[in-house]
Amino acid sequence: MLEAAAEAHRIFHSDFDSWQKRPGDPVTEADYAIDALLKARLLEARPAYGWLSEETEDSAERLACRRVWVVDAIDGTRDFLRGRTGWAVSVALVEDGAPMLAALTAPERGLVFQAERGAGATLNGERLMVQPRSGLPGCRVPADPGPARIGGVTVERVVKPNALALRLAMLAAGEADAVFQTKLVREIDIAAATLIASEAGALVTDKLGQPLAFNKPRPVMPGVAAAGPGLHAELLAALAGE
């Protein structure tokens, strides 16, 4: 993971190439280079494991594997292109549909998040715990500039990195109280961050309140909603009103 972070950092500070995979879907040489590096290292170590990532063509073979690497080489490509720091390298090991190990690094921010199911989550080696919060009004939510509201409730806007994984990690680190996305979410975007936030004490579900399952034939979720136990139900109710 540190090797991948170092290479991503090097490319970020170079005159890298970028293009559109399809209209509105940018990609850079870093996405492919980091994907290839991680695939080589992780599958060399565990050749029997499956693989799911954005820049590798998906294969149904992963569905027969109990353990699958779920990877987003550069989550937050738009911030990467803009020269902003809100991007990350995300790696999760999923077993029987549940994330078991996670690593998430934001090289330009000096952040390394790690988690193991049942053993907690850390940021740069320090244990993480979500901040206790009840009551949606005034809670901190990563949001775009402008008035921030959820289901008619006014909330406090905090800076929103392009990487959804980093937004969930902000919740784990106590820098946000609630994180959500109502449109479809890809498994690769949230597999690692889901475990990090959960191990820090957050509840993470889809936008309807259903548990998240990974390594599905169609690897997407109907949105995501994450918050501390005292706020999650209220967040879901507010999202249902939108």
Output the CATH topology of the largest domain. Fructose-1,6-Bisphosphatase, Chain A, domain 1
Looking at how many chains there are and whether they match, the oligomeric state comes to single chain
In terms of structural class, how would the helical and strand content be classed?
Answer: alpha+beta
User: What's the average pLDDT?
Assistant: 94
Describe this structure in words.
With 242 residues, the protein is an alpha+beta fold. It folds into 2 domains: 126 residues, 2-Layer Sandwich (Fructose-1,6-Bisphosphatase, Chain A, domain 1); 101 residues, D-Maltodextrin-Binding Protein, domain 2 (3-Layer(aba) Sandwich), CATH 3.40.190.80. Helices cover 27% and strands 31% of the residues. It contains 6 helices and 18 strands. The strands form 6 sheets. Strands 3-4-5-6-7-8-9 form a 7-stranded mixed β-sheet, sandwiched between helices. Strand 5 and strand 6 form a beta hairpin. The longest helix has 17 residues. It is globular, with a radius of gyration of 17 Å.
Topology overview:
Layout: H1 2-12, E1 18-22, E2 25-28, H2 29-45, E3 50-53, E4 67-75, H3 77-82, E5 88-95, E6 98-106, E7 111-116, E8 120-123, E9 126-127, E10 140-142, E11 149-150, E12 153-154, E13 156-158, H4 164-172, E14 178-181, E15 185-186, H5 187-199, E16 203-205, E17 220-221, E18 224-227, H6 232-240
Parallel strand pairs: 3-4, 10-13
Antiparallel strand pairs: 1-2, 4-5, 5-6, 6-7, 7-8, 8-9, 11-12, 14-18, 15-17, 16-18
Helix pairs in contact: 1-2, 4-5
